[in-house]
Write a structure and sequence with these properties.
Radius of gyration: 15 Å
Distance between the termini: 18 Å
CATH topology of one domain: Rossmann fold
Number of strands: 9
Oligomer: single chain
Length: about 170
């Protein structure tokens, strides 16, 4: 499927989870095997260029894409979870969302300075989640080599700059 055809099947839900937010429902992509495979292949082709040893994905919808891509490419998957959801010692960072605030954590033993990491998420709006993931990778002394997202919101495009780290935005709204 083309990026344009993928864009057409995403459903916009106004005022969810709070008034003023335009929620992008990606379930039609997940429910359509051809669409889901297309998205995974686009991500995988991008990631292959960077020879990543790990994919870091934030809770929760990033998990769906990250697991499929890590399996396809045979690289490790790192889950960035909300505070208190991971056992053992963790690195953590608190940050603001488009409609709130939260804290993400990764376990301290999952990345090393030898790792090259790609951050993947389903959507970039204010870039708070992506920047939190970059901070977690930095705390672990690993190196971020790229960022990829299914959807980016153009109203926040001025916040989608991450220095010299390459960014793949499959669909823009």
């Amino acid at each position: 499927m083309t990026k344009e055809s993928l864009k057409k099947i995403i459903i916009n839900i106004p005022d969810f989870p709070i008034k003023g937010i335009q929620f992008k429902d990606i379930n039609p992509i997940l429910n359509n095997p051809e669409a889901f495979q297309s998205v995974i292949n686009i991500f995988a082709d991008f990631i292959k260029k960077y020879k990543a040893t790990a994919i870091l994905v934030p809770e929760a919808r990033g998990f769906v894409f990250g697991a499929a891509i890590a399996y396809k490419l045979g690289i490790k998957l790192i889950l960035a979870r909300k505070k208190g959801k991971l056992p053992g010692k963790t690195y953590n960072v608190s940050y603001d969302l488009e409609y709130g605030a939260t804290t993400l954590e990764i376990q301290q033993n999952v990345l090393s300075k030898k790792d090259t990491v790609i951050v993947i998420d389903d959507l970039i709006a204010t870039s708070g989640t992506i920047n939190a993931c970059l901070n977690l990778i930095k705390q672990s002394n690993a190196q971020t080599v790229a960022i990829a997202t299914l959807i980016s919101l153009s109203e926040f495009a001025d916040k989608h700059h991450f220095g010299n780290i390459p960014l793949l935005e499959i669909i823009q709204f």
